[in-house]
Every structure is written in structure tokens, then in C-alpha cells.
Amino acid sequence: MTTTPKFGIPDLSDQQANAETTHNDAIRLLEAMASRAVIDRDLSAPPGSPTDGDTYIVKAAGSGDWASQDNKIAVYITDAWKFITQAEGNSVYLQDENVDVLWNGSAWIAYGGFQTLTDAATVAWDAGKGTNAKVTLTASRTIGAPTNLHTGWIYTIQVIQPGAGEDGYLRATITWDAIYNFTGGSASSSNGADLVDMWTFVYDGTKLQEISEQLALA
Fold first, then answer.
1. DSSP 8-state secondary structure symbol assigned to residue 4
2. Which of 147, 158, 161, 213 counts the most CB atoms within 10 A of its CB?
3. Is 130 exposed, middle or buried (0-12, 13-18, 19+ CB in 10 A)?
């Protein structure tokens, strides 16, 4: 059976038996791509009780019915999983993350949207899950070097100071990884409960070069 060059959707063959099955599968796969809606990209094995039309990105390493289908789009059609191989530049919308992701030929890269980072001694940021991020601090922290950066892309991070709490406000100081390069040589930060500071950078392939800094946002 031949398939289309972009998405690998099955073609009808001359005098094919049960042609309606191939045709219907092709329509379902095209519908999945037209809607662009993908439920999740963090599963390596199929969910237990899929519904007709459910669509996922297969996380490596795929297993079970998703074995050897890493990074493909999996669409549940009637009672079986069908798979779409993406062409570089295609994008879909992740419903659980509320963000668009782009297939760059080797990985799904998020652009736009805000991801919430985990407050920790060193705050980790996977930029492949979103070019914009925010974190609410509970104590003084280090902002670590983001992973999965792309040269020429713009990245923004919001840092929110701790709330007042029962014992009064205690300022959280911020230490930045050396990958961040600030126009004034160092970054300032706000001193007040729940205040929001926001920095925007462009990645030049080596450093995140500061574009703008906005402090004490409400």
C-alpha cells in the first residue's frame, strides 16, 4: 500500500477490496491533523481506555501498541491505533499544556504559552516545553541554565516573590546561572510580597542576552 509523502496517510489502490476502510482511515487521520488538537505528549504507552478520535504524541521509547512509533502522532480510530509521521515544520496544539509545539525534524519544540516551573534550590527550565516560564519562589533560589534552547529564539521568565505569610514577608534573593547575560552586568529584583519581575532574553547560541527587564509588576 502506498502512502502520502507528507503524513504517510494510506492511498487507495486500483480495484482495492474494502476500499472504504482505507478511505475512512485516511479521512480520520486528515481530521486529526486539521484539528491540530493533541491530548498529551508525555505517554510512552497507550492510555487504558482510549476514545475514538483520541490523539497523542508518542513519547520515546514507545511500548505496547506504540512500540517503534516514537514522536509520531497516534490517533485511535474505532479500535486500533494509527500513526502519522510528521514533516519538519508541522505543528499541533497540546491541550494539557495549552501550548503549540513544532516538529523541527528531531524533536517537538514548544513556542509561546507559559509553563509553570517548580520552585527548588535550583530552578530547572526545559525550554522545549515553552519559551515563556514563570516560577513562584518560597526562598532564595538559583535560576539554572535552561535546556533545549534554540539560537535566535526569544525567551521570557517571570519570577514571583514569596507571599507575606503568617510571619511577614521575607525577600527571596535570586542567583542566575552564567548563561544569563544582563545589559547592566547583573540583574536587580523586587523587594515586596507577591511582586513579579520579568526578564526577556534572546539566545545567541552561547548566552541568553537580556532584551528587557521589568520589575515590581502587580
1. -
2. 161
3. buried
